[in-house]
């Protein structure tokens, strides 16, 4: 597809990331002050325009964050504090919440106000006219004090459906008071793209072009008027979109809003947030940039999208969903042999973009249905001379099918498969050998005693080392003992940790005597890799996956040092 097929131009899109505010409202998400500072640095590296960093009036942690954030040297992003319109029956200057927004000393302030008349009368319990005053006076108060005001029209699309004229009037009040961005929020996340497009076009066709909208003072009645004079708007203004994913439409609604005229996009990088989450910016930025032709990030930053999305997810202690478009682990994975063969001949036959454009990698999943083309492609990373018809390819295909028949699975264990390739090519040397190990679990335990203990004896280049460790479980203890024994020979293993652990019973009919498959994900803070082990003994299966994980890390480090030396 080319850009023209999507009907878009070349204007840039301004990105506001709200990971630290709306994202922090997601279930299971909690950021320390240091976490928040680390996320800001990552988002600045990515090149977003705005970082909505929190609500300084809501808790001491956010106040402390804004105090420390003033010392950050940001290259691309500007911070903004988040808050609501003034309290009812109060002056802005007397509202402590608005004072806290000023005290945050950010260049931008995001203010949300009510656009749905239901919320005005039943939640705020104020008149429709007073709500307009609350919006206008708050925006004016902050704009007059040098803040760029980003006005979030909360529940705009629900309000537009219920009372079109009043919803437009709330946005008009913010605009006339000095807001520089008008952001239309699908706060309940239940709108569909056609409704989003219609409302955006209606807004731009009335408020921003001097069309008709109802006059002030005409809303406290059962049937508000639908017409009235409105002066043309001359200041430059950006219309924005803020979508939630409750109906699974956040990405579609965001892209549709851009096509309809929005030039400011809000969301969270990984997509987590209130209830079902926000627009996942990592999934929509590439669509807007590469498919619609609207640049969203500084030149060269889109290629770091996958890396920095994983970094933010790591800080938040969550995983990037494997099936997340563009940046997920499955986004460019190919399993069927026919697909692999086709894509090696014509890249775009099964890939809608080049994965390198978003910093991701093409992956050929190793399985009995994968085919020799996929195996050869993976093997070429070790030996560029391997072809589809090479004897090693045939041997690997045979070995792969035999192991999968025994319960092994390599499509989620790339590192273990690479070690198999090295063994078949004769390019593998064991870097350590476990002579013996023992794992003991004790129950019940107390708060001061670990439940598991492990002991291991290893040999490296003719030298033995014995180590022990305790852990929260047998695998945790074995992992600790093994790395403790090896760190005298390989200190770089201190950087490594186990980040995920999965167990699958292969044959349920055998009950507790069944074979189990253990998949382990490991990371050293820079890279992540997966290994597999299979055995009737869950501890031995874990041992096999752990050994592969450690050897993969060590072999990779050795090869990188060798290349650097050359």
Q: How would you explain this protein's 3D organization?
A:
This protein has helices at residues 33-46, 60-69, 96-103, 117-124, 128-143, 156-162, 164-177, 193-206, 250-260, 281-291, 305-315, 337-345, 372-379, 391-405, 414-425, 474-486, 538-565; strands at residues 14-17, 50-52, 78-84, 108-114, 148-154, 181-186, 238-243, 264-267, 333-334, 363-364, 433-441, 452-460, 463-471, 497-505, 516-523, 528-535. The chain is α/β, with parallel strands linked by helices and 566 residues long. The protein has three domains: 3-27 and 34-292, TIM Barrel (Alpha-Beta Barrel), CATH 3.20.20; 333-405, no CATH class; 433-565, Alpha-isopropylmalate synthase LeuA, regulatory domain (Double Stranded RNA Binding Domain, 2-Layer Sandwich). The strands form four sheets. Strands 1-2-3-4-5-6-7-8 form an eight-stranded parallel β-barrel, surrounded by seven helices. A three-stranded antiparallel sheet has the order 11-12-13. Strands 14-15-16 form a three-stranded antiparallel sheet. The longest helix has 28 residues, at 538-565. The model is unreliable at 1-10 and 213-235 (pLDDT under 50).
Shape: elongated
Q: Spans of 5+ residues with little confidence (pLDDT < 50)?
A: 1-10, 213-235
CATH superfamily of the largest domain: Aldolase class I
Indicate the percent of residues in helices. Answer: 25-40%
- The name of the CATH architecture of the largest domain is Alpha-Beta Barrel
Lateral arrangement of strands in the main beta sheet: 1-2-3-4-5-6-7-8
Could you describe the largest sheet, including whether it forms a barrel? 8 strands, parallel, barrel
CATH structural class of the largest domain: Alpha Beta
Counted by DSSP, the helix tally is 17
Overall pLDDT metric: 85
CATH fold name of the largest domain: TIM Barrel
């Amino acid at each position: 597809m080319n850009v023209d097929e999507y009907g878009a131009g070349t204007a840039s899109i301004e990105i506001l990331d709200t990971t630290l505010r709306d994202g922090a409202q997601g279930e299971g998400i909690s950021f320390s002050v240091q976490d928040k500072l680390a996320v800001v640095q990552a988002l600045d590296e990515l090149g977003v325009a705005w970082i909505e960093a929190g609500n300084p009036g809501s808790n001491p942690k956010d106040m402390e964050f804004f105090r420390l954030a003033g010392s950050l040297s940001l290259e691309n992003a500007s911070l903004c504090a988040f808050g609501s319109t003034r309290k009812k029956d109060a002056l802005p200057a007397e509202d402590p919440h608005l004072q806290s927004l000023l005290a945050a000393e950010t260049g931008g302030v995001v203010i949300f106000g009510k656009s749905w008349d239901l919320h005005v009368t039943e939640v705020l319990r104020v008149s429709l006219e007073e709500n307009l005053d609350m919006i206008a006076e708050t925006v004016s108060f902050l704009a007059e004090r040098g803040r760029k005001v980003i006005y979030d029209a909360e529940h705009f699309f629900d309000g537009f459906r219920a009372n079109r004229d009043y919803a437009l009037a709330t946005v008009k009040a913010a605009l006339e008071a000095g807001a520089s961005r008008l952001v239309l929020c699908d706060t309940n996340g239940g709108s569909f793209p056609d409704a989003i497009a219609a409302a955006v076009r209606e807004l731009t066709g009335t408020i921003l072009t001097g069309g008709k909208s109802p006059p002030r003072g005409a809303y406290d009645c059962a049937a508000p008027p639908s017409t009235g004079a409105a002066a043309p708007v001359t200041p430059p203004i950006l219309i924005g979109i803020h979508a939630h994913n409750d109906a699974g439409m956040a990405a579609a609604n965001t892209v549709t809003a851009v096509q309809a005229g929005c030039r400011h996009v809000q969301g969270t990088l990984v997509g987590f947030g209130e209830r079902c989450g926000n627009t996942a910016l990592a999934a929509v930025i590439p669509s807007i940039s590469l498919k619609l032709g609207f640049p969203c990030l500084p030149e060269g930053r889109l290629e770091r999208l996958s890396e920095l999305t994983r970094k933010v997810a790591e800080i938040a202690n969550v995983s990037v969903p494997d099936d997340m478009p563009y940046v997920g682990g499955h986004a460019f994975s190919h399993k069927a042999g026919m697909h692999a063969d086709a894509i090696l001949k014509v890249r775009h036959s099964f890939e809608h973009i080049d994965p390198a454009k978003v910093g991701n990698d093409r992956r050929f999943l190793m399985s009995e249905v994968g085919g020799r083309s996929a195996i050869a492609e993976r093997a070429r990373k070790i030996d560029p001379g391997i072809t589809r018809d090479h004897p090693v390819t045939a041997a690997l295909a045979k070995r792969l099918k035999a192991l999968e028949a025994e319960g092994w699975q390599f499509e989620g264990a790339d590192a273990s498969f690479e070690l198999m390739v090295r063994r078949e090519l004769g390019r593998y040397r064991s870097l350590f050998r476990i002579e013996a190990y023992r794992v003991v679990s004790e129950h019940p335990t107390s708060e001061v005693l670990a439940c598991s203990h492990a002991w291991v004896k290893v040999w490296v280049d003719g030298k033995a080392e014995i180590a022990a460790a305790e852990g929260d479980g047998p695998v945790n203890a074995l992992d600790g003992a093994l790395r403790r024994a090896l760190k005298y020979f390989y200190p770089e293993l201190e950087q490594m940790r186990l980040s995920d652990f999965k167990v699958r019973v292969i044959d349920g009919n055998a009950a507790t005597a069944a074979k189990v498959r253990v998949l382990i994900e490991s990371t050293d803070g820079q890279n992540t890799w997966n290994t597999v082990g299979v055995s009737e003994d869950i501890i031995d299966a874990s041992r096999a996956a752990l050994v592969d994980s450690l050897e993969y890390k060590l072999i990779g480090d050795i090869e990188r040092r060798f290349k650097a030396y050359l």
